[in-house]
Amino acid sequence: MMTEMREPTADKATANDTVLEVTGLDVDIRTPRGTVRVVSQVSFTARRGRTLALLGESGCGKSMTAKAIAGLLDPVASVSAGRAELNGVDLNQMTAKQRRAVAGPGLGIVFQDALTALNPVYTIGAQLGESFRIHRGANKKQAKAEAIDLMRRVGIPEPETRVNSYPHQFSGGMRQRILIAMAVALSPQLLIADEPTTALDVTVQAQIMALLHKLRTEDHMAVVLITHDLAVVAEEADEVCVMYAGNVVEQGPVDTVFSNPTHPYTKGLLDSVPSDAQRGEGLSSIPGSPPELNKIPSGCVYQERCPLVSAICREERPVLRETGVAQRAACHFSEKVSSAKVSTELANSFEEENR
Questions:
Q1: Same domain, 201 and 293
Q2: What does 292-325 look like in DSSP terms, one character per residue?
Q3: Contact at 8 Å (CB) between 228 and 286?
Q4: 150 and 30 part of one domain
Q5: Residues 112 and 204 in one domain
Q6: pLDDT, tens digit (0-9, with 9 covering 90-100), for 10-47
Q7: Which residue segment(s) compose the domain that 29 sits in?
Q8: How confident is the model over 108-133, as pLDDT tens digits?
Q9: Is the dihedral of CA 196, 231, 12, 54 positive or negative?
């Protein structure tokens, strides 16, 4: 059975809790065959002391959205529209110097591949202490002391001796802890965690997520968690944005969205979890594959895989609209999705009504 969802740790959110406000974000990539839109009209809010999850299959635009917010897009990619406001200031309008000033105290990011994110020729102490030297004017001795404190905070054993070690001398889980330490060194208001448990075993994954939860609570940060793991979202997130083909197709509180999905893609993802599977039984899955981003159909982006597809889906792209308390979905038939128990029932009931 799916991991039971925890109660949100923060009090009811208010406008003053907003740390990041993303509105109508578009990201384009220039290719030899023309410009391709990889993120389209993405909007969401990340609040202090809470975790927002960006959920979806690989290639749906989760990481590209995060890179756009953090200002880490490759040269061939650019933000073509929209705003990403950190405490009311649009990050997309900042100069390179302003971006560097924000990186650390304003925004931290945890990458999914710790080995490539860390510099192999510098000690861990030097890399952890760099933020304190740049932003707080610490000398070499002070920066090393701060690095040791950080390592102790994230659970690195014997930090006084291991501060002089190099990245390759740590295990994958320890390297991920070091990346988290670098990201939270200056107590940022916003932390972006991009698949922070990739390539780690299940036990270490749980430890890393518990560490992120602890640090979020201690520093009262807003966290944007990028993942395709439904169990992680159920356990750690307060709100969720479900993405498909560069678009947000459903968003809302995790407990509401997971208990009563109102978009067929969200329902398909949840039905794919083998909660009551028996040996020898087939597993439920979503048929087909996501569309290529340079061949997004007109109308609904999910139409090629949807059991409810009809003429209106091919002609008119649905917009996000309210489907519940603080819940929105981009579907012409969200009421039908909500009333069905499983995907097969959803398809069968719709076919019967349209014969």
A1: no
A2: PGGGPPSS-TTGGG-TT--HHHHHSPPPPEEEET
A3: no
A4: yes
A5: yes
A6: 444 455 799 999 999 999 999 998 999 999 999 999 99
A7: 18-237
A8: 999 888 778 899 999 999 999 999 99
A9: positive
